Amino acid sequence: MTRPQSLKPGDTVAILSPASAVDPALIDGAVKALQSRGFNTKVMAHATGRKGTYSASAGERLDDMRSALSDPAVKAILCSRGGYGAVDMLGRLIPKPVWLIGFSDISALHALWQSQGIMSIHGSMARHLAEFPADDPANQALFQILCHGTQPAYSFTTHPLSRQGSVRGQMIGGNLAVLAGLISTPYDMLKPGRILVIEDIAEPIYKVERILHQLRLNGVLENLSGLLVGQFTEYRGDSNYTDMERMIADMTAPYGYPVALGAPFGHIDGNLPFVEGAEVTLNVSDSITTITPA
Prior knowledge:
Number of domains: 2
Shape: globular
Order of helices and strands: EHEHEEHEHHEEHEHEHEEEE
Distance between the termini: 14 Å
CATH architecture of the largest domain: 3-Layer(bba) Sandwich
Oligomer: single chain
């Protein structure tokens, strides 16, 4: 895969809103955070706009992305927030090797970058840069990736329902509902042989279970190299399962690969960034789970 060029002081980071509208104050805060690190910033024309729930029309959002990609000074693109609408760009845009940063609905754009063999950064966006200090672990890790191009090493306590094991493979994934909507398209990231990362927000347990059944039936779930289950937030248990982790553990019980539940990815303040497409080693022991660059 193509790894975008590492950033150095004086390089430009474009900020745009490819999906839902965002509070302009968060973009202002992100600009200050980036400039404090020595980067120039370029806020695209419709980044702070609003058209219904979107930041702008589909055409205007696409124009912002094309303008950012066509500017040779721009070395990274920070998406201001997710929400809904990034899928409008798929099939209408050819990316180039610059770092794309975002998560949630931005998973659709990660899928676009992946379709062209380009690495990108699944990580927090304008709000986190604006509201958290420079020494925040997620912010520090983001700038490590941007400036050095390397996937940071992470460790976290092993969840009681995790399955132990060690595997090396390509780490890839994002918001499960968004990625499930791209199955059987040219932007399908849910494929066998990978260490898959999944997370989501406000999705009922049965809907996530339905997606996992889809992956079971198309042969992906059985043939993963490993599974990193990030944070599933803002959902309610039901009479079948009180929590998402138990359902996922049951769905993956027939398989032999390592499964790490409770990974620090998703709609949480401690959403650590990872490089889509990076080769890593996932090790799940009885007490500690580690992700290390291979």
